Amino acid sequence: MWTVKVVSLGVVALSLSLELLFWLFSRRRSERITNKVLFFPSEVACVEHIFSPTLPHSHVCSLPHGVDTSFSRLLRYILSACSSLDLCLFSFSNMDLSRAVLLLHSRGVTIRVLTDKVYSAISGSQIGVLRKAGICVRCDVSAVHMHHKFAVVDGRTLITGSLNWTLTAVQSNMENIIITEEPDLVQPFVKEFCRLWGLNDSAQYLSSVTD
Amino acid sequence: MWTVKVVSLGVVALSLSLELLFWLFSRRRSERITNKVLFFPSEVACVEHIFSPTLPHSHVCSLPHGVDTSFSRLLRYILSACSSLDLCLFSFSNMDLSRAVLLLHSRGVTIRVLTDKVYSAISGSQIGVLRKAGICVRCDVSAVHMHHKFAVVDGRTLITGSLNWTLTAVQSNMENIIITEEPDLVQPFVKEFCRLWGLNDSAQYLSSVTD
After folding, report:
1. Among A39, B109, B120, B209, which residue carries the largest CB count within 10 Å?
2. Record's Gene Ontology CC terms (chains A, B) (predicted)?
């Protein structure tokens, strides 16, 4: 009877341990998946420390320092890109976001920008700046608006919402942004970006126009 | 030894069954949570069968029938509301979406519409139609744009993205919509809707204006 008890208890202990490990694994997995929401307008604050973390909290500007805002979080998510950043943006005139993209480009991150043809040419658009820096930009060539406002970071984090990448959207309008790593949400956007990127290959377009 | 083996096998079988049940439960739970993405422009097709499922596939219109499109899916998600529908929309002029909201209202679904003041007054806006039908509408009274484009169905399903509720957005532009039940994504929108709804209480607003 003693042996029966020992063996049974051993098996129960093993089973419970497995159960616990499985539960911990499931919990850690769901904790790892980012699902965040940011609302705008964002409080206006200095973002210099995000671009230059080693710099002391200087007083070169009159804005509040060290404040965590929706915009500073958005910048951090963008700047977290290690290998790639795909941008599909209706309008892009925000200079801090442009600076973040240029910084990633200088770090060797592969950047692709797909944007609306009409809005890429308006005053204050950062599209020309990105192009001049050598970033690969394609303009949607269709007659309709490319109204998306999404980014895919490293092929696994989706940033999407109502927010155009403009100063008005960030500092004035009521807007939202979702940051998610849910594969069911991210993968369709990755696929759609590739589809639109291929559709708007300027070489193909020029070829079809001259045919 | 025979008893030891029987008891051990029994415990192992019980343990494995528990493990299986736990796995099935986790899987069913993640399967239950909706995470969908819809892209636009949507193929133009007849949506009459969505409003009147009992009607035969009639030929009262020349559009393709029985086609599953991004727009028909969006309509179905909206019409799935059983108890409440909260809409926070920059622009609302799409007549099929307006019809869906009116239908829900006639079914007794509690509807709240928060919209941008300027865009609620433009030609073709459905806001006046909803108001006349007795639906509770509040216009954002701030000087900036209420640029959101989201809906919360029954307090648990979020529909959000770049798509304004207009015909151009649905049939022409490149747009996206996310439909999700992820609590980490839905709850912030529920909270933000309540905050904005409270902020734009016309009684409070009138009171503060006349103070």
Report:
1. B120
2. mitochondrion
* pLDDT tens per residue across span A56-101: 655 578 888 888 999 999 999 999 999 999 999 999 999 999 999 9
Identify the burial level of A94 via C-beta atoms within 10 angstroms of its C-beta, where 0-12 means exposed, 13-18 middle and 19 or more buried: buried
Question: Would you say A169 and A92 are in contact if contact means Cβ atoms under 8 Å apart?
Answer: no
> Are A148 and B178 an interchain contact pair (Cβ–Cβ within 8 Å)?
no
Under an 8 A CB cutoff, do B18 and A19 touch?
A: yes
Nearest CB to A11: which of B11, B149, B160? Answer: B11
Catalytic residue numbers of B, as ranges? 147, 149, 154
* Positive or negative: CA dihedral A50, A56, A61, A65: positive
What is the C-alpha separation between A96 and A92, in angstroms, rounded?
Answer: 11
Cis peptide before A41 (omega within 30 of 0): yes
- Rounded to a whole number of angstroms, the distance from the CA of A210 to the nearest CA of chain B is 25
Distance in Å, alpha carbon of B15 to nearest chain A alpha carbon = 6
DSSP B195: H
From B158's Cα to the closest Cα of chain A, the distance in A is: 11
CB atoms within 10 A of CB A72: 19
Mutate to test the interface with B, among A32, A174, A194, A197 (most CBs of B within 10 A): A174
Q: What's the rounded Cα separation, in Å, for the pair A195 and A142? A: 14
Beta strands in chain B, from DSSP E residues, in sequence order: 35-40, 84-89, 110-116, 136-140, 149-153, 157-161, 175-180
